[in-house]
Design goal:
The complex is a heterodimer. Chain A is an all-alpha fold. Chain A has twelve helices and two strands, in the order αααααββααααααα. By secondary structure, chain B is an alpha/beta fold. The chains are: A mainly alpha, B alpha/beta. The interface between A and B is large, with 44 and 41 residues.
Chain lengths: ~300, ~425
Amino acid sequence: MNQLLSVGVDGIIYSAWLFTAALGLTLIYGVMKIVNVTHGSFYALGAYAGASLTGVWLARGYPPMLSYVVLLVAALAVTLVVAPLIERGILRFMYAKDEVVILLITYALFLVLEDVIKLVWGVNPYFIAEPYALLGSFSVGGLAYPTYNLILVALALVSGLGLAWLLHSTRVGKLLLAVIHDPEVSRAMGINVHRYYLTTFTFGSLLAALAGAFTAPTVSVVPGLGVEIIVLSFAVVVIGGLGSLPGAALGAVIVGLVRSASVHYLPQIELFVIYFVMAMVLAFRPRGLFSLAEPRKI
Amino acid sequence: MKKVVLTLAIAAIAPMAAAQNVKIGVVTFLSGPAAAPFGVPAKNAAEFVVEQLNAGTAPSPYGKKGFGGATIETVMLDEAGSTTTQVTEFRNLVQRQNVDLVIGYVSSGNCLAIAPVAEELKKLVNFFDCGTPRIFEDGKYTYVFRTSPTATMDSVGAALYVRDAKKGVKSIAGLNQNYAWGQDSWSDFEAAMKVLVPSIEVKTSQMPKLFAGQYNAEISALLSAKPDVIHSSFWDGDLEALILQGGPRGLMKQSLTILTTGETTMHKLAAQIPDGTVLGARGPFGPYAPNNAYNKWFLNGFVAKYKDQPNYASYQMAQAFLGVKAAWEKAQDANSGKRPSAEQVGAALKGLTFEGPGGTVRMAIGDGHQAIMETAYGQTKMQGGKISIVNVKRYPAEQVNPPEGAKSADWIKSGFKASAK
């Protein structure tokens, strides 16, 4: 029973982390139809900015409790500088090109940003362990879990529910849904589609940077951090259906729980189980679990 | 007229001087995840040692400038990228850059691929860090050497240490990366523990993906299993993430945890490593290095130059240069003071015993091409805000390395009897 509880808690924590990281990827694809590989770079940028800014904050003796706010500010700052630069400076000239070409462009940008990160932060690791241990621990089934994990779960809930509310209950969201449905007609109706592209790319990248910044206290921030997350995020959004918000949530929960169960009960298959689930979903639902019906365009 | 003679003399001498240089290709990770823990500390060590050797300021018997008086010139190369890339780059080093020899390689995969190419090109190679014992167990080479011990020593030493430190150990568990290094380390450790404690129970063996980063589930599984001992050969960000995530959950308090490459992170994460964690340094390096003249020279010089502690990769690189220098000068002496050939240097390095910052290195196995050394493990303890290593136990080279001609896995399974000196 205790082990089942552990599987559940570990699965939820992992799912929360994965969902926050994958959410922006599915949003950007939903609106802009870009399979955005630079998403991994924003995750890494968020982690580096979070680790270095919080490191400075703590080194100067400022209140450690505010370090969580610093993580948030770091993610915001780095995204507001880099994301508009990429969208306005490069991507907007590429929208007319094929989806595969844009994917390759974002992959090239990912490689460039990896080197930029090394130029700015070097190759030595960054650590900020304090925020992880600061809030103490809670116990489930006799096992201790740092309370910080609840921040990751809260971040996932706020990001997911906030985005759902934004899309379905605000004027901006409804206009964005129109852009998702048909950018050409939206443009004809007077919607500034390019502005929505800029906003979406920045907001989606912010979600990746937030995931990176809030992961920083739990890991060593090193070059290559963005590689692993982009692979896992793709698995999540492919399982859920590219561009689907509930799909990303379900995909993250499935991946989190399946991985956690395999670690506890059958560690030999841990490496393969996530991709096995993905393959099974694609075999029966090639466009993912929550793929939407698309209007046929002649 | 005098001017013309002088100019002609300089013109004649210049190419001669250039020809006297010893050009060494140095290959290690300068980018990617292995750069911070291994590549950059090793590159720094190479630069420091070359600078000292060229200035003739290394302790005796390494005091002669360069290699036998010839200035050392290095060509640094990044080891990041595929094995195929490394083989191509190695060929470039030899055939285009015309290096005299190559010192390098962290990845065991790269070492296994480079060895036959070095043999084909008849170019001397000294592997400074890679751990797989398969190089000289599965192949026989003339031009390939390794002046650092193999990973077998790490696993056997780890098993001996936990047997000694945790009296009556009944169960073990593993957390290792799912690729050759992690799998081999765990299987050697498990086999050695089964020899030492035949009734040992393996509670769980976790093998997450390399660079997975998130280990909450694995840590929960280990906490639930409650093994007496946890073995991990994690390195780089994975090792640091394990300490950061496992420490606050009491993992290292519940089970005696042995981190076979833990030394690379002991200064970076000092405050986060719980007291009592067992750290390995893949040999008598770093905190386990002897208090000899070479270690004083290397440690003090490195710290003064880089304002940072050298780690085991730094020691291994320094040792690799000193071993080749010793062989080069021995071969040069035997060659009536003339520049030795690759074959002559190889013959001198074969079976050589030399001293370095990590102590005595004996090229005793692999037909004289593979080094053996003593090894040591100890436990962390924070004292006065500084991390220190206590309960250090040292194991002689013959106790933790297989004898000449034996395969590591067979030697462990047959009870790893100490070989004769």
